[in-house]
Amino acid sequence: xxxxxxxxxxxxxxxxxxxxxxxxxxxxxxxxxxxxxxxxxxxxxxxxxxxxxxxxxxxxxxxxxxxxxxxxxxxxxxxxxxxxxxxxxx
Length: 90
Description:
Mean pLDDT: 94
CATH architecture: 2-Layer Sandwich
Number of helices: 2
Strand content: 25-35%
Largest sheet: 4 strands, antiparallel
Oligomer: single chain
Order of helices and strands: EEHEEH
């Protein structure tokens, strides 16, 4: 999935996802909201014919890029754990 960096500062990141599907941005925002380091995380949802999902992350003291990376790693672990529980998985 291609992502365009709209803004990248120490305590704020804005990413535009090149898709009309909000599933991944919503999952990432939900994971981010579980962190005490996050002041704001959300997805801007425009009409699919007009815009694309935009993830906004604002942090306090920690670098936004580090907090985002950690949240994605945590999602990856959760998905791997789920995958390992699927019957008949090779």
